[in-house]
Specification:
- The chain is mainly beta and 212 residues long.
- The protein has one helix and twelve strands.
- It has one domain: Porin, CATH 2.40.160.20.
- Strands 1-3-4-5-6-8-9-12 form an eight-stranded antiparallel beta barrel.
C-alpha cells in the first residue's frame, strides 16, 4: 500500500512540474554595434539570432528561463585608407533570465525580462566594402572569444491554440571587452592592438517565438 501511495505521489509531482515547465523556439533580427573608445567605429550591422528555450513558472507572475542560441553580432569599422569593413561575430549564447508578467487583464500576457548571458564566439570575419575584395577574411585572432553581459526586454504574448506566440524587443549589453592583444598582417596592412580598448557588444533584438 505504501508503494502505491508513493507511486501516486511521484506521478502527481511529475505532472505538476511538467505543467509548470514550458519550452519554445525563437528567431529574430539583431541590430548590433560595439561600444567603446575606438575611433575606427563607424556604425552597426545586422544579423540573425535563433534558438530554443525553456521556462519554469515559479508563480503566476514570475518565471525563470534559459536556452541556447546562435547569435550574430558585429560592427562596421574603418580598416585602412578609406576602406570600411563589416565585422561579423558568430556566438553560441546561453541566457539566464527572470520574467515578470504585468498585471494587465487580457487573453495573452505582457511581460518584462531581465537577466544575464554568457557566450562563446564560434567565428569572426570581416568583409571589406571595396570592389576588389568579395570574400570575408577570418579575424578570430583579433577578437576575444568570450563574452558575457546583461539582458533587458519586453514581450507581448498572444495565445494560439495550446501555446503562446511571443513578440519581443530585447537589449543586450556586453560587460566583457572583445578587444585583445594582437599584431597581425591583413590585406598587406599591419594591425596592432595592446588589448587596452574597452570594446563591448551592444545589441537590440527584435524576436518572434512560440512557446508550446
Amino acid at each position: 500500500m505504501k508503494k502505491i501511495f508513493l507511486l501516486i505521489f511521484i506521478i502527481a509531482l511529475f505532472s505538476q512540474v511538467h505543467a509548470q515547465f514550458k519550452y519554445g523556439i525563437e528567431v529574430g533580427l539583431n541590430l548590433s554595434t560595439v561600444k567603446g573608445n575606438d575611433p575606427r567605429i563607424i556604425s552597426g550591422t545586422t544579423g540573425i539570432v535563433y534558438g530554443i528555450n525553456g521556462q519554469y513558472e515559479l508563480l503566476d507572475f514570475l518565471t525563470v528561463g534559459s536556452g541556447i542560441y546562435l547569435s550574430q553580432k558585429g560592427v562596421t569599422r574603418s580598416l585602412y585608407n578609406s576602406i570600411q569593413g563589416i565585422e561579423n561575430y558568430n556566438y553560441i549564447e546561453v541566457p539566464f533570465n527572470v520574467f515578470y508578467t504585468l498585471p494587465i487583464p487580457q487573453s495573452g500576457k505582457t511581460f518584462v525580462m531581465a537577466g544575464v548571458y554568457v557566450a562563446r564566439m564560434l567565428s569572426a570575419s570581416v568583409l571589406p566594402d571595396n570592389e576588389g575584395q568579395s570574400s570575408a577574411l577570418n579575424i578570430d585572432d583579433m577578437v576575444n572569444a568570450n563574452d558575457y553581459g546583461l539582458n533587458l526586454g519586453i514581450f507581448q504574448g498572444v495565445r494560439i491554440s495550446s501555446g503562446m506566440l511571443n513578440l519581443g524587443i530585447k537589449y543586450s549589453l556586453g560587460l566583457a571587452s572583445i578587444d585583445k592583444s594582437y599584431n597581425v598582417i591583413k590585406y598587406g596592412e599591419s594591425f596592432i592592438s595592446d588589448g587596452s580598448m574597452k570594446l563591448k557588444n551592444s545589441v537590440v533584438s527584435f524576436t518572434i517565438g512560440y512557446t508550446f
